[in-house]
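Protein modeling request. Please complete all fields; requests missing the sequence field cannot be processed.
Requester role: graduate student
Desired output: 3D structure, token encoding
Chains: 1
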Amino acid sequence: MTDPVPTDSGLDAVLDAAAECYLRLGVAKTTATDIARAVGVSRATLYRRVGSHEAIFLAVLNRESESMAAEARAHLEQVADPAEQVIEGMMFSIGQIRSRPVHAAVFGGESAAWAAGQAFQEEALRRIGDAGVRPLLAPALAADLLCEDDVADLVDWILRILLSFAAVPGDGGRTPDQIRRQLTAWFLPAFAGIVRPTPPGP
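Delivered output (202 residues):
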């Protein structure tokens, strides 16, 4: 096989091919050879220019998650209350993870636990979470009522919740209304206290 010389713009072609393989073969059964064949290069060229099979998987997941985050921001533009933004954002993300074809293929099959573990270690997903949460916490951060560790802990917790729903097939015994009620009853009061904390008395 004669490999064409890939360009930087060819990365999208690799990620498109990998996503197509995940949909057609399943994440667990997709190999680097499958992706290389779909792109039209050798496996050695694929590794040399893009990285390991895991790196390709994470790049696909990151691209899909960036797209989902952009849609979430548009969806939340009309929600003014910071705490409600987080609840609605989590509900939107859970629904998107289940309905977007690549996310569903990644988290809905036999590789769900592995995929969730890989995703949780992906720094890009934490940056997406931080970008969504930080503006809501800005007043408390400015007033020194929260610190950077608090922001990191909150992002960590939200990602764990989202990935747990992602890695459990179907609804895990909970309908969307039940999930919303659960988040509203147990998470919303705590988050409201974080966003609008009561300053210490004199």
